[in-house]
Structure formats: structure tokens, C-alpha cells
């Protein structure tokens, strides 16, 4: 698995196929995939209301809302929308989803500022290639590293994982099915992608980017992790596991090594990035 994930090509800044259609499906217990083919969005349900993680790009909400309905749930029952990081391909659809649901939007301090203002941070590693603005998001709130989002029986923990973006957050919770409780992880992107003059080895706009990414990789590797969904689903082998669901049921998504493999792939990509930057000198 680690070798497979290390070989996954980095997604382009403007992925033309990220919004290709994808049928929604149950992952485990009360956790469902409602995103597009290339952009993850996960719904965690409860009788007290639901929590949605990530809103895809500005084109994604049409599919996400449709998928939630297909599964028998209502967009108006979403009480919280959580964000992995503030790039347009994971946060660009949040403004519309918030408008439709009335939900409170939660993310890191850095991410909340971008969602609220619609303006990317000049310290972002991809700043020179990001859209100059996104739709501003209403009803946002910053959460701290380690905070727990509670809704009825749901408890979803925030783990700051910056480096790919300054406001990165990974999320963990538990889902139960058939008497088994699984440790669920929604992992933020850990890819060392930069644009323009930004260098992970040395820069002034985000001087601790490399240290942040190193720490974030270690954080994800250390998670208790039975089921992993990454912000880009192909980055954590989700489609390979989905292909086994027909014969294995939702147990197909359980892989106790998934977070370590995801982190190993990110660590290898960071090493290649730093080597390429060194070769430029």
C-alpha cells in the first residue's frame, strides 16, 4: 500500500475531472461518502443532525446535495460543515452548502479567515496559482487544535495538519456497525505542492512550512486508524477498497495500516520535492 500511495501522481492545481460523477455509498456505520469522483465529502449522521466534512469545489454542491438525498437524508439537517483546508477544491463549495443548510462552518484559525473573507493567504504554498477569490462563507467559526465537535451522540476531533495549506485540519471520530466500532479518519492533504517562487526548503511567506508538513505527516501516521478517507479519495486507495465492498461489505474499508501508508507516501513526496529544490540551486 505504501508503494502504491507514494506513486500516486500529484493532482494538478485545476483538476478538470475532479467533479466527475460518483454514486454515494456507505463507508461504515453512520458514515457515508457523498463527494464527487475526485473530491471527497463525507457525511456523518445522527438523530440529532448531521456533520458534513468538506464541500468540494464550486461545482460540487449540486452532486453533494443530490447524494445526501439519495441516501435518505436532508441537507437541512446538517448542523456543522467541517473543512480540511481552505483551497478552492475542498472549500469552494462550502458557501453554497452553508446557504442551503444553515450549518455552522468550522475549521482552523487560518482556514476560517480565508473562508470568511474569500481571499487566499499570501503565505499559501500555491498562492500564485490559486483563484484570487472564493465565495465568502457565512456563519464560520475557528476551532483550536484538539477541539471536539459534539452533536448529539457524535464527537468529531480536530487535528491541525498544516503544510499543504496553512489551515489544514484532519478529523477523527468513531462509527459502529454490526457490533464493531471503527476509528474513522478524514485526512487532510499532505502533499508538498508549491507554485511560483515558493520553496519548502526556504521561504519567507510561510517560513515553517516544511516543519509543519513534517509534523502533520507524523500526526496522521500516529492516528488510531481503521478506516481512512483522504481529501482526494484516490490518495488513500478508496476506490480499490470500494471495489471489494460487493463481496466484503463495509469491512472492505477497514485497513489498520492505511494512515501509516498515507503518511509514508507524503513523506516520500516531500523528500522528492526537497531534492528537486536543492537541484535548482
From TrEMBL:
Residue ranges constituting the Metallo-beta-lactamase domain according to the UniProt record: 38-232
InterPro entries referenced in this protein's UniProt entry, alphabetically: Metallo-B-lactamas, NDM-1-like, RibonucZ/Hydroxyglut_hydro
Pfam families in UniProt: Lactamase_B
Secretion signal, residue range per the UniProt entry: none
NCBIfam families: bla_class_B_core, bla_subclass_B3
Protein name, entry field: Subclass B3 metallo-beta-lactamase
Source organism per UniProt: Massilia atriviolacea
Gene encoding the protein: bla
Amino acid at each position: 500500500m505504501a508503494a502504491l500511495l507514494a506513486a500516486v501522481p500529484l493532482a494538478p492545481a485545476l483538476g478538470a475531472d475532479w467533479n466527475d460523477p460518483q454514486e454515494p455509498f456507505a463507508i461504515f456505520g453512520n458514515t457515508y461518502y457523498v463527494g464527487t469522483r475526485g473530491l471527497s465529502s463525507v457525511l456523518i449522521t445522527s438523530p440529532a443532525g448531521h456533520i458534513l466534512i468538506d464541500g468540494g469545489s464550486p461545482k460540487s454542491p449540486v452532486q453533494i446535495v443530490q447524494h445526501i438525498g439519495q441516501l435518505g437524508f436532508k441537507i437541512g439537517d446538517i448542523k456543522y460543515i467541517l473543512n480540511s483546508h481552505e483551497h478552492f477544491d475542498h472549500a469552494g463549495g462550502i458557501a453554497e452548502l452553508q446557504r442551503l443548510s444553515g450549518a455552522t462552518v468550522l475549521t482552523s484559525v487560518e482556514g476560517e479567515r480565508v473562508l470568511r473573507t474569500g481571499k487566499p493567504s499570501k503565505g499559501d504554498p500555491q498562492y500564485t496559482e490559486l483563484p484570487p477569490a472564493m465565495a465568502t462563507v457565512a456563519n464560520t467559526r475557528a476551532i483550536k487544535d484538539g477541539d471536539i465537535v459534539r452533536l448529539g451522540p457524535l464527537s468529531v476531533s480536530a487535528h491541525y495538519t498544516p503544510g499543504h495549506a496553512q489551515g489544514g485540519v484532519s478529523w477523527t471520530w468513531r462509527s459502529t456497525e454490526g457490533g464493531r466500532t471503527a476509528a474513522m479518519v478524514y485526512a487532510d492533504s499532505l502533499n508538498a505542492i508549491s507554485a511560483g517562487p515558493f520553496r519548502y526548503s526556504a521561504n519567507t511567506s510561510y517560513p515553517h512550512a516544511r516543519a509543519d508538513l513534517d509534523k502533520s505527516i507524523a500526526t496522521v501516521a500516529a492516528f488510531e486508524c481503521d478506516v481512512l478517507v483522504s481529501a482526494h479519495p484516490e490518495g488513500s486507495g478508496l476506490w480499490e477498497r470500494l471495489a471489494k465492498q460487493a463481496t466484503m461489505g463495509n469491512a472492505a474499508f477497514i485497513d489498520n495500516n492505511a494512515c501509516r501508508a498515507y503518511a509514508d507516501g507524503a513523506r516520500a513526496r516531500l523528500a522528492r520535492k526537497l531534492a528537486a529544490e536543492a537541484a535548482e540551486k
